[in-house]
């Protein structure tokens, strides 16, 4: 079974600075998807960024980018020019690319990292 | 991407009673997922609901405690039965979209 580990329970950053959230995962599969989700106090889960394992190029979405190291099974999220609205719980998640079987379509989440942004 | 309406947003229930949570999707989807998020914790998958078949439950979750209905491709309900304080959590539904997954806004359940 796949596991996802976020080793930083809490992180903080000054507004306008850059912060990196860590995520590692364990899998025997070669094709999969990785996600970062943001959950503000409103509880709404918001997709931040997604990475396909077969793509070597790191995904970027405006101020958000990832460092995907497939061999190391590492998937960190970098937030540049941090804003107060970035404060939230961030979850790293894994999904198999398999189109059948018992794990089809299921997300496995890490423990989460609480990000605090200081003005 | 899909939009999910989840109800209720919160509820306070007595021990021994049940709560039914509804999720309505604005498009047809094959699979719907139900998650539990205990206070300050991550999301744990309860079950996968496919239209026209029995839900598939994850280890540690049973149908008698968490019965699921999936009458059509846009709607599902999760019932949390015989409530105890340990069931106090946030419950979320989710569907797959082109880019990832869309989640309902969650139901915060408090059992007293």
Q: Which short descriptors sum up this protein?
A:
heterodimer; A: 119 residues; mainly beta; 6-stranded mixed β-sheet; 12 strands; 0% helix; 51% strand; B: 112 residues; 7-stranded mixed β-sheet; 4-stranded antiparallel β-sheet
Commentary on this structure:
The complex is a heterodimer of chains A (119) and B (112). With 119 residues, chain A is mainly β. Helices cover 0% and strands 51% of the residues of chain A. In chain A, the strands form 3 sheets. In chain A, strands 2, 5, 6, 10, 11 and 12 form a 6-stranded mixed sheet that branches. A 4-stranded antiparallel sheet of chain A has the order 3-9-8-7, with no helix packed on it. A two-stranded antiparallel ribbon of chain A has the order 1-4. The radius of gyration of chain A is 14 Å and the shape is globular. Chain B contains no helices and 11 strands. Chain B has strands at residues 4-7, 10-13, 19-25, 31-37, 43-50, 56-57, 68-72, 75-80, 89-96, 101-103, 107-111. The radius of gyration of chain B is 13 Å and the shape is globular. At the A-B interface, loops of A face β5 and β9 of B.
**What percent of the residues of chain B sit in helical stretches (DSSP H or I)?**
under 10%
> How would a crystallographer describe the biggest sheet of chain A?
6 strands, mixed
Mass-distribution shape of chain A? globular
Tell me, rounded to a whole number, the average pLDDT of chain B: 95
Distance between the termini of chain B: 37 Å
SSE string of chain B, helices as H and strands as E? EEEEEEEEEEE
How helical, in percent, are the residues of chain A?
under 10%
Total DSSP helices of chain A: 0
- How is the quaternary structure best described? heterodimer
The count of helical stretches of chain B stands at 0
Strand content of chain A: over 45%
């Amino acid at each position: 079974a796949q596991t996802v580990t976020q080793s930083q329970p809490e992180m903080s950053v000054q507004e306008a600075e850059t912060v990196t959230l860590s995520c590692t995962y364990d899998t025997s599969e070669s094709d999969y998807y990785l996600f970062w989700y943001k959950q503000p106090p409103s509880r709404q889960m918001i997709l931040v960024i997604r990475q396909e394992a077969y793509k070597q190029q790191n995904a970027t979405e405006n101020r958000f980018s990832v460092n995907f190291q497939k061999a190391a099974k590492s998937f960190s999220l970098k937030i540049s020019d941090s804003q107060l609205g970035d404060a939230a719980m961030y979850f790293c998640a894994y999904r198999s690319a398999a189109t059948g079987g018992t794990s089809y379509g299921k997300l496995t989440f890490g423990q989460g990292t609480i990000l605090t942004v200081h003005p | 991407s899909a939009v999910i309406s989840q109800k209720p947003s919160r509820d306070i229930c007595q021990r021994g009673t049940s709560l039914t949570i509804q999720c309505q999707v604005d498009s047809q989807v094959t699979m719907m997922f139900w998650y539990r998020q205990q206070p300050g914790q991550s999301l744990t998958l309860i079950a996968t609901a496919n239209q026209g078949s029995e839900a598939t439950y994850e280890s540690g979750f049973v149908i008698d405690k968490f019965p699921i209905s999936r009458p059509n491709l846009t709607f599902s309900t999760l019932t949390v039965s015989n409530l105890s304080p340990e069931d106090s959590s946030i419950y979320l539904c989710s569907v797959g979209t082109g880019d990832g997954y869309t989640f309902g806004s969650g139901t915060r359940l408090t059992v007293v």
